[in-house]
Amino acid sequence: MDLNERKKLILQAIIDEYIGSAEPVGSRAVSKKHELGLSSATIRNEMADLEEMGYLIQPHASAGRIPSDAGYRFYVNSLMKRYKLGLETIEKLQHELAERVGMLDRTIKRAGFLTSVLTDYTTVVSAPVSERTEIKKIDLVPISDNAVMLIIVTRTVKNRLISTRLSFDECQKVAGILNACLREKSADEITMDTIHSIEAAISEKVPIEPKLIINVLHYVYEAVSELDDTEIYVQNAKSILQYPEYQDVNKARDIFTFLEDKQNLKKLIAGSGDDTEGVSAKIGDENDAEILKDCSLVTVNYSLDGKAVGKLGVIGPKRMNYAKVFASLDLISHEIDSLLGCFDDDR
Amino acid sequence: MDLNERKKLILQAIIDEYIGSAEPVGSRAVSKKHELGLSSATIRNEMADLEEMGYLIQPHASAGRIPSDAGYRFYVNSLMKRYKLGLETIEKLQHELAERVGMLDRTIKRAGFLTSVLTDYTTVVSAPVSERTEIKKIDLVPISDNAVMLIIVTRTVKNRLISTRLSFDECQKVAGILNACLREKSADEITMDTIHSIEAAISEKVPIEPKLIINVLHYVYEAVSELDDTEIYVQNAKSILQYPEYQDVNKARDIFTFLEDKQNLKKLIAGSGDDTEGVSAKIGDENDAEILKDCSLVTVNYSLDGKAVGKLGVIGPKRMNYAKVFASLDLISHEIDSLLGCFDDDR
DNA sequence: TATTAGCACTCAACTAAAATGAGTGCTAAC
DNA sequence: GTTAGCACTCATTTTAGTTGAGTGCTAATA
To answer: I need a labelling partner for B222 at 20 to 30 A (CA). Which of A57, A202, A325, B109 fits?
Structure first.
């Protein structure tokens, strides 16, 4: 199972070549383009060995070799060269990412976007989730005679319009009670019981129709239950269409369909590289999703502080430019960490 | 230029057929499938006439006919039969659309989604824009020792995280002044001068570092300037891949690229059916965007009240099922109108 | 013993020619 | 005015043949 130096060099040459061309690599090409000082015949013998060992595959008798999943895995773990991003690329990226960093969702989205531009693959990015989403403030603001805006501030802001008739004063009073009861509570602490006790408190102190209270509280509860929902953004899905492995429209469509379903994405994002520090990859069959069996998914965690964590991932063909993707994800995740660091408590 | 009854029937039959098959329609097929009681030879003569009049095109000498842009236009204006959506479809749709109607953006997004499910084409939907976005409330909420959430409530809610050190009390005071100065102002009324006068007011009344004030106000101004930005959502873009006219991956990619750029979409949405009541279509060459020259765009306006208005559009191949698309857009736009009606003032 | 030149063999991909058939336009008869 | 009949057109499909990249094996070489 252990490869000698020459086999490693040859395997590396073949995979590098295949990543670039998407065509089976022949012995002659290896012996010519890569200066190993070996004839094609020798390479041929070594390739036969590498195939036997499971690192290469021959699509048909008279074709060159392509890497197997195991081949890619070995390449990622031990063979690939470090990719160095250009200084100006890095600076441009830092600059663009730092813009309007206050709009968290947008920053996260842009991180995905920039990754997709940098790598030219599809990216998936999940907004940070806290273990405990603590309510900082609740507010009710009348918008028209018939509508009141409910606003719940946590680390982010949720809002929804409620169709109800409450005056400015009534809103303030109800909001006061809501704040007294819910501030500093986390979403999972708030149950139907909590809501009922608030209902009692309001009807005691504020002279408004019980029906209106129930209506408002219904929405409060609904909004609170949604606090922990993660947003997930997919970007540059169209890039899939440029790779020869997806020239078949139906294959492409299957992937698009997969990527359109947030449920799939949540599973995907959840089940990848959780315990790992830094960038990690799932290659081909290592993916759980059937449809990604001939794709690779490379992910990295970023964090907002110790607790809140999100993920950034790249989806592409198995023969993706791993070196570049690894370098890009590494850079961007660190960039996010340091950018968002300024909002942390300094305990 | 005026068509007799028989020519109309034949043209209608041909377009209906072509919409279904995407294959040039021959005279024999028309005389067989559609019970006109005419032989293929007769149909052939009529088809030759229709071609001369500009309603049909013959891709090559020995092929059937396909509709020209003018043909589709005539079809949409005078020929197509009314499409009736099933009662259960309508009810299901009403039900799904009504869910969580308080989250405006989500409702709009879902309207687009449901349209895309109903029609199986790509949809574009713009969130409603008011002529004047009036500020209802501004708030500052401390999130951590180092971060304050700025919240601006209009008909919707904008928020952003500011990296600054302000205590709860300081936030309240600053927010009080912001509200006093900005409440009931619209975005275009707020200039740099307004901001400077607020700066003066704060430094007079609240004992905090001027640097912090400037920092916060900078973000306030930025957020206010963004108030009138419209969100635009594209959904079910992948549906493009299922139509034979887009089996060519490169064509598909061009459209995806087009749809990914919000600027394009804004122009698209802005320049379509503005003055029209009800559903309107842009067929092929009628579209401004070069890339949509062999697509059709069908749009409808929906309104939140007299002023705030958004658009819902369907993009598909020229041979789209216009009847169904018209019926769907009509239904959904009315549904939105009545759903969002409950938030209106009842002046 | 490791490497390489040489050669027969394989097989996908390309090419050219031939067959097919859907559809037309025209003419003459009804 | 309508239609049957027929010659003609031309994209598409089918077929057979050619090409060429690449392999595996063998025997010669360092």
So the answer is: B109
Confidence category of residue A347, pLDDT binned at 50, 70, 90: very low
- Measured in angstroms, what separates residue B248's CA from nucleotide C16's C1'? 26
CB atoms within 10 A of CB A314: 31
Residue B136 has what DSSP assignment?
A: -
- Residues B105, B126: Cα–Cα separation, whole Å: 9
pLDDT interval class at A303 (50, 70, 90): confident
CA–chain centroid gap for A177, Å, is 38
Domain count across chain A: 3
Stretch A28-44: mean pLDDT: 89
Q: What is the pLDDT of residues B217-240, one digit of tens each?
A: 989 898 888 887 888 999 999 999
**Which residues in chain B (82-101) have CB-CB distances under 8 A to chain A?**
100-101
Torsion of CA B67, B73, B76, B77, to 10 degrees: -140
Set of chain B residues whose Cβ sits within 8 Å of the Cβ of A101: 161, 163
CATH number at residue B205: 3.30.390
Q: What is the CATH number of the domain that holds B47?
A: 1.10.10.10
CATH of the domain at A270: 3.30.450.40
Kindly report, residue by residue over A241-280, the tens digit of the pLDDT: 999 989 888 899 999 999 999 999 999 988 877 777 889 9
pLDDT (mean) for A108-124: 97
Q: Which nucleotide is nearest to A26 (CA to C1')?
A: D22
**Residues A79-96: what's their mean pLDDT?**
96
Specify whether B163 is located in the same domain as B116: no
Contact A116, A133 (CB under 8 A): no
What is the DSSP secondary structure assignment for residue A231, as one 8-state letter?
P
Residue B23: phi and psi, rounded to 5, are -110, 145
Residue-range definition of the domain harbouring residue B112: 87-129+231-346
DSSP B78-110: IIPPPP---HHHHHHHHHHHHTTTTSHHHHHHH
Contact between B179 and B163 under an 8 Å Cβ cutoff? The reply is no
Alpha-carbon distance of A302 to A25, in angstroms, equals: 37
pLDDT (average), residues B250-274 = 90
Are both A153 and A257 inside the same structural domain?
no
Which one of B164, B192, B225 terminates a domain? B225
Q: Are residues A117 and A238 in the same domain?
A: yes
Average pLDDT, rounded, for chain B: 91
What is the rounded distance in angstroms from the CA atom of residue A197 to the CA atom of residue A244?
61
> Comparing C-alpha atoms, which of B285, B284, B294, B312 is closest to residue B243?
B294
For residues B335 and B239, membership in a common domain is answered with yes
Instruction: Report yes or no: A183 and A135 within 8 Å, Cβ to Cβ.
Output: yes
What pLDDT does residue B347 have? Answer: 41
Q: How far is the CA of B36 from the CAs of A212, B21, B58, B328, in angstroms?
A: 63, 20, 22, 30
Tell me which residue in B100, B141, B153 faces A136 most closely, judged by beta carbons.
B141
Residues B117, B11 share a domain = no
Residues A319 and A195 in one domain: no
Q: Which residues pair with A162 in a beta bridge?
A: A148
The C-alpha atoms of residue A311 and residue A288 are separated, in whole angstroms, by: 17
**Token digits for B127?**
């969130």
**Per-residue pLDDT tens for B305-320?**
666 689 999 999 999 9
The one-letter amino acid at A20: G
Q: Tokens 């369907």 correspond to what residue?
A: B314
Selected residues 265-324 of chain A with any CB under 8 Å from a CB in chain B? none
B201 backbone dihedrals φ, ψ, rounded to 5°: -60, -40
Based on the fold, state whether residues A236 and A304 are members of the same structural domain. yes
Distance from CA of B165 to the nearest CA of A (A): 10
Whole-model pTM over 0.70: yes
